[in-house]
Design brief:
Strand content of chain B: under 5%
Number of strands of chain B: 4
Distance between the termini of chain A: 26 Å
Largest interface: A-B, 46 and 38 residues
Largest sheet of chain B: 2 strands, antiparallel
Strand content of chain A: 15-25%
Distance between the termini of chain B: 40 Å
Oligomer: heterodimer
Strand order of the largest sheet of chain A: 6-7-8-3-9-10
Radius of gyration of chain B: 25 Å
Number of strands of chain A: 10
Number of helices of chain A: 12
Order of helices and strands of chain A: EEEHEEHEHHHHHEHEHEEHHH
Shape of chain A: globular
Helix content of chain A: 25-40%
Shape of chain B: globular
Largest sheet of chain A: 6 strands, mixed
Strand order of the largest sheet of chain B: 1-2
């Protein structure tokens, strides 16, 4: 069992009178895949948006501890710093790629902070100063590794918007990984994938967790509706319903929890879970 | 089909009824209202049958959607050959053209430069700026004021004008960064007007509506251009017959150089992380944030660099005219520059240059048909936007590639929402 990477403490998010997330506490540990599941409207994406700085939580603490013991309070960091210094990367439920830019360009934009540490450096590059050429070569090499890991090498020069859906999903993960995250937050990465593609995705996520055959490793926080994927790859599952945590444990424990079955799994997906 | 045509005729009636049907004429005692029902009838009938003919023509044609990739490829092909031709024709222009054409060339090149500068803000970063002329004005007045108060020359003031304009760009950028799309457009529009109104009313500094005159002309390494010749003049140094056209030709090359500098910098930036971040920002701001890109700083640099080039152009404008007044910096200038960028195709350098030639050069040529000029332009704009909604030469070339670079069609690109 790894050290806690992200600890969510009494996170509450209110939108006017609506309580989307209610005093939620859980931990995501380093080197693990933590899945957050729950019926539609349970507040999963809201939790994600709080973690990645798109929402400022009404109450609660989000603490991130890197492997080198560097500590970050995500609740008091501006959005882009959460990725830059906190090393939290995310993907989106509805894919957000730079559709008019090529696969390679998408992966280079993700390495922006490496390529251009500050504006002065970015402007000096116009005159060929600041060692930009070397940084760009290294960035392209890294992009190549991730394209290879996600099977997109052949599409490197194609605009992202012209890729098939499954490729776009994988590209979004590759792009997030190009930011060198410690924690990769995936919002329904298997949505809309066929069974074969889901299998490939599960495989990719496990490889990212273990740092096997890929260019980097990261712990993963996952929102997913595809129970097949969740049960197969998760080390730890958190179940939400109506903004509250109703269960927390290993996939086997979750599967046996009557509260979970009542709230969520009891509604027609039993076969899939049992399988 | 008939219903559609009848509906169009009804709309036409609503529009033309008051506009064509009623005419005011100065009578003996007061203004008289004259009714013209026949003219309205003709206009409405023309719309009715025109619409009918259009629909009939459309129905006979199969719905053929040209492959966008092919169009983009074709445009890249045209661009490859057209760019050097246009460049050579421009550079050699003073050798074959008359004074009038060179003057026109200077005007067009000023707008090409403004277009390329605005293209950084609108085309690359996707920030709709309706007040671009404000930075042009800041550049022009910076040069005029510094030159008159501190006696500095054009070449010293040029970078200062650019820096001051960039500073104002950042100053405008800060409050408007949280705004997007239409809201951003409105605030930039207001900013453009504020600058003009301040210049107009701060008479003690800027001369107000009287403008500023006697702005020094540029020199070539200290050599002045004047019609009298004499010691230290360009004509004297090279042993030429003193002629005013030397200065015109010199100005032509100055603005050509400045425009090419703008082009070079923006082309270069496009391949660098900063330019790529601008384009990413145009495509999807939220994704940029999620990748750790500081959206504020990125937007500010786009504003500042775009404004700096407007400042350069403004300083050039001031030195060319030797006289500036707030009238040169009205909203219509912003609108023209924006129209050049949009018509040319957002993000396309050649497209912007061609659009500037057509809009400004064409405008000068249509001077004889003064009244119809705006009508023709309005019509041309509508036609271009119907036929090629993303501008003449839209689409983009990837900034980096592993294999061969293929042009990306405009259909995949996002124009940005501020």
């Amino acid at each position: 069992m790894g050290a806690p990477l992200l600890s969510v403490e009494a996170l509450t998010m209110r939108f006017g009178g609506l309580i989307a997330v209610d005093a939620l506490s859980f931990e995501a540990r380093a080197g693990e895949i933590t899945a957050v599941i729950g019926p539609n409207g349970a507040g999963k994406t809201t939790v994600f948006n709080c973690i990645t700085g798109f929402y400022r939580p009404s109450e609660g603490v989000l603490r991130l501890t890197h492997g080198d013991a560097a500590n970050f309070l995500l609740t008091s960091m501006p959005g882009h710093q959460i990725t830059r210094r906190g090393k939290v990367a995310r993907t989106f439920q509805n894919i957000r790629l730079f559709a008019g830019m090529t696969v390679l360009e998408n992966l280079l934009v993700a390495q922006h902070n490496y390529l251009m540490p500050n504006v002065i450096n970015g402007l000096l590059a116009v005159f060929g100063l600041g060692g930009h050429g070397r940084a760009e070569r290294i960035a392209i090499e890294k992009a190549k590794l991730w394209m290879h890991a996600t099977g997109l090498t052949a599409r490197a020069d194609d605009p992202a918007g012209s890729l098939p859906y499954g490729d776009q999903r994988r590209l979004e993960i590759a792009r997030a990984m190009c930011t060198d995250p410690e924690l990769l937050c995936l919002d329904e990465p298997a949505a809309g994938l066929n069974p074969r593609e889901s299998d490939e995705l599960s495989n990719l996520l496990v490889r990212i967790r273990d740092g096997r055959d890929v260019a980097g490793r990261s712990s993963i926080l996952l929102i997913e509706h595809d129970m097949g994927v969740v049960m197969r790859i998760s080390d730890h599952v958190v179940v939400l319903d109506h903004g509250r945590k109703i269960s927390d444990g290993t996939p086997a424990e979750i599967r046996a929890d009557p509260k979970v079955i009542a709230a969520y799994l009891g509604e027609g997906d039993e076969d899939e879970v049992a399988a | 089909m008939l219903r559609d045509a009848a509906l169009s005729a009804l709309v036409a009636f609503g529009l033309f009824g008051p506009m064509i049907g009623l005419k005011t004429e100065v009578g003996v005692a007061a203004i008289e209202l004259i009714y013209r029902p026949i003219a309205v009838l003709i206009a409405v009938a023309a719309v009715f049958f025109g619409r009918l003919a259009l629909l009939a023509w459309k129905s006979t044609r199969p719905v053929a959607k040209a492959a966008p990739g092919r169009i983009a490829g074709g445009m890249a092909y045209v661009g490859r050959y057209l760019t050097p031709i246009v460049l050579v024709l421009t550079i050699t222009m003073p050798f074959y053209a008359e004074r009038y054409w060179i003057d026109l060339g200077i005007l067009v090149l000023t707008y090409v430069m403004l277009g390329w500068g605005l293209n950084i803000v609108v085309g690359l970063a996707g920030l709709l700026d309706l007040g671009y002329v404000a930075f042009y004005a800041v550049g022009a007045y910076s040069y005029a004021l510094i030159a008159q108060n501190f006696g500095l020359g054009f070449w010293t003031c040029l970078p200062l004008a650019g820096i001051l304009a960039a500073f104002w760009g950042v100053l405008l950028g800060f409050p408007v960064l949280r705004l997007r799309g239409d809201y951003l457009a409105i605030v930039t529009l207001a900013f453009g007007e504020i600058i003009r109104v301040v210049i107009l009313n701060w008479a003690s500094l800027t001369g107000g509506p009287n403008g500023m005159s006697g702005i020094p002309r540029p020199t070539l390494f200290g050599l002045v251009f004047n019609s009298g010749g004499g010691e230290g003049s360009f004509a004297d140094f090279f042993g030429l017959e003193p002629s005013i056209s030397h200065r015109v030709i010199f100005l032509f090359y100055v603005i050509l150089g400045l425009a090419l500098l703008t082009n070079w910098v923006s082309l270069r930036l496009r391949r660098l992380p900063l330019g790529r971040a601008w384009e990413a920002l145009r495509e999807d701001e939220i994704a940029c944030r999620a990748l750790g890109i500081d959206v504020t700083v990125t937007k500010l640099t786009a504003f500042a660099i775009g404004a700096a080039f407007a400042g350069f152009a403004g300083a050039f404008f001031a030195t060319r005219q030797a006289f500036i007044s707030p009238e040169s910096f009205t909203f219509i200038e912003s609108a023209i520059v924006l129209a050049i960028v949009v018509l040319g195709g957002l993000g396309s350098q050649l497209g912007v240059a061609l659009a500037a030639i057509v809009m400004i050069g064409g405008g000068e040529m249509f001077r004889d048909f003064q009244e119809y000029r705006m009508l023709i332009f309005g019509g041309a704009l509508v036609v271009v936007m119907v036929v090629r909604p993303r501008g003449f030469l839209s689409g983009r070339t990837p900034s980096v590639s592993l294999g061969t670079k293929r042009k990306i069609g405009a259909d995949l690109m996002t124009e940005g929402h501020g």
